[in-house]
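#lab-general

N.A. 3:47 PM
ok so I finally got the sequence cleaned up, no stray characters, all 209 residues accounted for. can someone with queue access submit it? mine expired

B.Y. 3:52 PM
send it over

N.A. 3:53 PM
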Amino acid sequence: MQASTSPWRLRTSAASPFGRKVYMAIVAQGLEDRVTVIGADTADPGDALRRQNPLGKIPVLLVDGLPPLFDSRVIIEFLAGQNGTSTLIPAGAEKFIALRDQALADGVMDASVLMVYERRFRPEGFAVASWLDYQADKVERALAAFESEPPSLAESGPGIGAITLVAALLYLDLRFEGAWRTRHPGLQAWLEAFAARYPAVYAAKPQLS
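B.Y. 4:20 PM
back already:
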């Protein structure tokens, strides 16, 4: 891992939806100048990632004076406290709505990654169809719930529920050719509204150094 002069180092991969979620939150907070993004190889036993997070998972945020921060939800808590005011995690009852939406969208990403890995790491023809269907059903139920009750898009900035859902939908575009869009036109319209209201956050993607 190369040296960095930035006070924070974000370890992730280019395709990780959880890394993208964190980087989108960094941009939403206006903190991108503090961060250097450094690639991590979860499959490499020699990568320092396994010392930074014993689980060998990404993302990890390295901040001087603190232990390595993981997983993405812990990093979000850290980011939300950095500039005095934050829309990432609102106050009052809305806090729990945002955290619930984050958890549901995290579940979409978890299930989607498991489907990718099932096909990637099993020999061709040996992927377990019932397991793939089980994960796909989770994704479909979650997207239906979000289409019925999507996260709000506040004028002051996006909350973590909305950011996490965007990261999940963009990962579905990347790995599953955007098949969700024809089944959930209302959610597609919501995504377009997010992109129009917060274009810099929508476009935010970790650029590995």
